[in-house]
Amino acid sequence: MLIGARVDKIYQPSREEIVLSLRMLNSSDKSAKKLIFSANGTSARVHLTSAEFDNPMQPPMFCMLLRKHLGGGRLVGIRQDGLERILYFDFECVNEIGDTVVNTLIAEIMGRHSNIILVRNGRVVDSVKRVSDAVSAVRRILPNIEYETPQRLERLNILEASSSEILERIFQRTDRLAKALPDILEGISPIFARECAYRAAGDVDVGCAELMEEQRARLAAFLDGARDSLNSSGNYTLLSDESGGKKDICFVDIMQYGGAMSAERFDSANELLDSFFSAADGSERNKQRARELLKTLNTVYERVSRKVELRKKELSECADREQLKICGDLINANIYRLEKGMTRCVLDDFFGGGQREIALDARLTPAQNAQKYYSEYRKASNAEKKLTELIGQGTEELAYLDSVLDCVVRTENDAELIEIRRELSEQGYLRGVSEKGAEKSKKLSEPLRYVSSDGYEILVGKNNRQNDLLTLKTARASDLWLHVKDIAGSHVIVKNSEGGEFPEQTIFEAAQIAAYHSKGRSSSGVPVDYTPVRFVKKPAGAKPGMVIFTNNKTLYITPQKELIEKLTKDN
Description:
Blueprint: E1 6-14, E2 17-23, E3 32-38, E4 45-49, H1 61-70, E5 74-80, E6 86-94, E7 100-108, E8 115-120, E9 123-127, H2 163-171, H3 177-184, H4 190-201, H5 213-231, E10 236-240, E11 246-250, E12 262-266, H6 269-317, H7 321-333, E13 344-348, E14 355-359, H8 366-409, H9 414-426, H10 435-442, E15 448-451, E16 457-460, H11 464-474, E17 480-484, E18 492-494, H12 504-516, E19 526-532, E20 536-537, E21 548-549, E22 553-557, H13 561-566, E23 568-569
Antiparallel strand pairs: 1-2, 2-3, 3-4, 5-6, 6-7, 7-8, 8-9, 10-11, 10-12, 13-14, 15-16, 15-23, 16-18, 17-18, 17-19, 19-22, 20-21
Helix pairs in contact: 2-5, 3-4, 4-5, 6-8, 7-8, 9-10
């Protein structure tokens, strides 16, 4: 179906994923088809997809390279060596000087060794994962070297080999059947190998040498049926556990789990793979981008934290500044007894009683020594004021960074990360986002919405910019504002559309939501402050999300996820 299609767009949603948008030219269906290549160690695959992807603001270098070499190219061939998990996509393209060339995009689906490689004239142009001698002494994947296919094992192709050939290989093995089959047949999965053993003997651990004549016949019949299924339309099955978790996939019905797993069937392998991988991949892509932002934020947080600690140490050194003034006063009071050239003196201390030994600079007169102590006293006093101010600013900055870190941890998609990146750019922590990214983030995502058991709407900010908008613009003076006490978390607003007092149950549920959408979600006895919105103010010059409030009350909450999930949620 794809042969003859032209490459319309190329995206790289994550470090190990490539998406090609192909424009169909030779069919009545002119819509674009999306082809995903994944080299992720846990979800490596190639298939057509209908999933939507959040792409990074700046395309990675490999994505730019593919756009240069494949953009506008025509797909002229798709090749595979037997059932080896290596696919070759040949594109007819025009190079920099206008000549027609064939560039091949190779997908190697080999677990953690999976890769996506662009090859021209048998030489590597580049790859998603560069493999140097330091990574592998067996096979390198680097630009400008000759491309070599991985060493191929001598195995049978289930689509071509007869059941008797397969059984003959099995009879030569002494280990378990489920372990032997992947060494005998190319391109099959562990779940299919176990299913073969189960269909033959009712036992996934049966040994090759233990198979009786009847069991061998059942195995041959099952292999024939699997071959027929693949040669026709296939029977694509997704297995889920009791909690709904997606566990495995196969191209035949799976019986080995009995009633422990539920099965969902799909008409095509593309739909099956979309269902099995898309949600998990979207979460992983978001986590990957969040990890990069968290790394940057943690670096900034540690730097500011070190500054605050150093300033606190300097401030502690200013604590004895009064002793400097006393030394100056004592020198002035006894100046008639002192002479230039003295290095120390012992004077009666009429401030604290007893005697005090004072160090002197032999190069200075007694009056100059007194002025030196007064100068050091003034310097320490000024330093204390400045250090106190800087420590306060640093502490506020740490609180702000802590709130941003909490927001990043709780993001659910790339759009929310873009909003946070734009906020950090505006505050000077990141370089400015691109215009494209800025346009995406000008319109904030909608806040989370809940409805209390009493029917009150509850809104939750997803980040600091949204918190400000929610509290200072959206909320009315009569609405209720909630936030965890002295912990990073979201602003929560309970809309007072009915007027009057808020029911206790609604306040309790809103406090549950505030505690859950904070760093204290895994703690017990989390303090949650609440007050009418009219008592919440934003100080001039305060960072996003930072407010002050009065007339508040406090509830101590242990977040209950089950309770929160019972509330109507619309986000």
